[in-house]
Task: structure prediction
Amino acid sequence: EAFGKDMQLSPKNIINDKKIEVQTPDVTIQVSAQRRDLVQTRVIDGTKYIVIRADEGVQVNGVHVHIE
Result:
């Protein structure tokens, strides 16, 4: 029995500490745990946003995209 009242369940056993996954009903974003500083949340004009800093190397569906 892996789980039960006499067993201890450590979050380290069930959480992937190599990546962070942010989900909404329509979007999934995966970020290296070491670069979680790239993702922020903001409220702009009353609307909630997930903001990703994109300095270089941005791709959409495998196509490089230049952001000005």
User: Anything to note?
Assistant: The chain has one helix and six strands. Residues 1-54 form one domain.
